Amino acid sequence: MNGLQPENAGVGDIGGNAEERFRALAYDTALSTLVAVAVYVVVKVSLDGFRQWRARISVLIVGSGPVGLTAALVAVRSGKVLKLTVLDERHRNALLCRPQQIALDPRSVKFLLRLGVDFDNMEGCWHNEHFFTRIGVFQEYLLSILEQKKLKVDVKVQLGTKVEPSY
Question: Could you tell me the pTM of the whole model?
Answer without folding.
Answer: 0.62
